[in-house]
Each structure stands twice: as structure tokens, then as C-alpha cells.
Write a structure and sequence with these properties.
The protein is mostly helical. Helices cover 58% and strands 8% of the residues.
Length: 287
């Protein structure tokens, strides 16, 4: 196997040939098969059921599915080639949620900044709607308390929902009456992480759509802020390393010059307000 640049051909070492063969001939074809998506979805039902009861599993999978389908449907609207959602099952105790979320992979070129914005914002906003419904239901349910060995932080938005729908919980910061509330908490946690204005996270897509090439300055400020947060909360360190490694650049769409309209600017500002009130600087306290 060799790669040609212009008129010159470069022979690859054997190890590179093997890597490229696995990547493009095996993995790429394998992950285009729908049975992989179905298998991962079924495994995620199982691992989230291990984390809590079936109602938690239904709620958290609904949040993740709605989030990713928001991205997927916008890709279809703009004829951007993309995969179906891949759920990521990780059983407890490796992960208290039973999952690391879900992803889709965009394989086509994004035509312009409006398409990039719509694809980026559709996921977190769709997931947020289901998250809010989940929280309202959970805070109005009367179910037996299930012991959770990890203390959970409370964002501003989560605290507001407690005040509005179940203020009695404010007297006990460790109280978590039912797994449906836990699913809503997970939904807010995932939404906030995705809205970090960095790289190719959803928030990074939105920032690039708004500011174009100048978004690199926003990425740097956001990573600096996250690094300061990590100094006070070391469990963030692995995520910080990933952000530094992959979060400083964003590939431009085909048409990088057309600015966004006022409506999208308003929605973009709204999403970052959601990020601020939903983000938890110290989400876990291990006892």
C-alpha cells in the first residue's frame, strides 16, 4: 500500500499498512452496519438497568436518544452524511450512570455555518426538553429512596427545579428520592458537558458558527477556565487532557464566510446561558 501526493508515491511501513487496513477496510465497514448500533443500544439498556431501576434506564436512554436524533435529523436536513447514534455502555461500578452517553459521526462536509449551527444546537436543545420533563416527573413522584454511594453536586438549574417542584429536598442536600430524578440530573450533566464552548463539542460547533476563525480565542479561554476548575477538582484531569488534545481547533465548513442571522444568535446566546446554569464544577463527592 502506498499514498500518492502529486506525482510522487511514498511507501508506507508495514505497521502503517496494517493500521490503515484495520481503520478503513474493517472498522469503517463494521461501524456502518446497523446491527452495531442495535447491539450497543441493547447493552446500554442492560448497563443502565444495573445502575438503577428500569425507570431510570428508560429516562436516561430517552434523553440520550433524543439528543443524538436532534443531530441526526439536522444532518439529514442538510444532506450531511452521518451515522446512526452509537450508545456507549459502561456498567457500574466503572460508571455510576451505566453509560458514557451516545455519539453520531458526521462523515460528510458541512456546507455552511448555518448548517453547522443547526446541527450543533439541535442535540442539546432536544435533549434538554426531555431532561426537563424527566426532572418534573421525578420531582413529583413518590418512590422509595435508593442509596447512591456518590454524592451529587447541584447546578443552579437543578436547584431551581427542586425549589419549584419539591422544595422539601432543599433541607437534605444528599436526598435523592427516586431514580427518575437521578436520570434528570444525568441529563443536565451531559447537556452541560456537551455545551462547553470548546473544539468539536456541541458548544464548540455553536461558537464556531457564531465567530468563525476567531472562535479559537473562545476555545483557549474556555480551556483555561476549565483548567482552573480542574485545579480545585482533580477528577476532571482526564477530560481536561482530552480537551487540550482535541479542543483547540475546529474544521471550517465549506462556506465559512456567511454570517448567522439574528434568530440563530439569540438561540446561541440562550444555549450558553443554559450551559452556565446547568454546569456543575464539582459534580461528585466520593465518600
Amino acid at each position: 500500500m502506498s499514498i500518492q501526493f502529486g506525482r510522487r508515491r511514498y511507501k508506507l511501513p508495514l505497521l502503517e499498512k496494517i493500521k490503515l487496513f484495520i481503520k478503513y477496510r474493517i472498522l469503517k465497514k463494521l461501524f456502518r452496519q446497523p446491527f452495531i448500533n442495535i447491539l450497543l443500544f441493547i447493552l446500554t439498556i442492560f448497563t443502565t438497568r444495573l445502575a438503577q431501576n428500569i425507570w431510570y434506564s428508560i429516562a436516561v436512554i430517552s434523553i440520550l436518544f433524543t439528543h443524538e436524533m436532534g443531530h441526526y435529523l439536522m444532518c439529514r436536513k442538510y444532506r450531511i452524511k452521518s451515522t446512526l447514534p452509537f450508545f456507549i455502555p459502561i456498567p457500574p461500578p466503572l460508571n455510576p450512570f451505566g453509560t458514557m452517553g451516545a455519539v453520531i459521526k458526521m462523515e460528510g462536509k458541512i456546507p455552511h455555518r448555518k448548517a453547522l449551527f443547526d446541527v450543533g444546537v439541535a442535540g442539546p436543545l432536544a435533549g434538554l426538553v426531555v431532561t426537563i420533563v424527566t426532572l418534573i416527573i421525578g420531582l413529583n413522584l413518590s418512590m422509595p429512596t435508593q442509596a447512591i454511594e456518590v454524592g451529587l453536586g447541584r447546578s443552579l438549574l437543578f436547584t431551581w427545579f427542586i425549589k419549584w417542584f419539591n422544595p422539601a429536598l432543599l433541607d437534605n442536600p444528599e436526598a435523592f428520592p427516586n431514580p427518575v430524578i437521578f436520570a434528570g440530573w444525568v441529563g443536565l450533566f451531559i447537556t452541560a458537558l456537551n455545551l462547553l464552548p470548546i473544539g468539536q463539542l456541541d458548544g464548540g460547533h455553536i461558537v464556531y458558527s457564531l465567530f468563525g476563525s476567531k472562535s479559537k480565542y473562545v476555545y483557549r479561554m474556555a480551556i483555561t477556565g476549565f483548567a482552573i476548575n480542574t485545579a480545585y477538582y482533580p477528577p476532571w484531569i482526564i477530560f481536561l487532557i482530552l480537551l487540550i488534545t482535541f479542543g483547540l481547533r475546529h474544521p471550517p465548513p465549506s462556506n465559512d464566510s456567511e454570517p448567522l442571522d439574528l434568530k440563530r444568535w439569540i438561540i446561541g446566546i440562550f444555549t450558553f446561558i443554559v450551559f452556565i446554569v446547568a454546569f456543575m464544577p464539582f459534580p461528585f463527592q466520593i465518600y
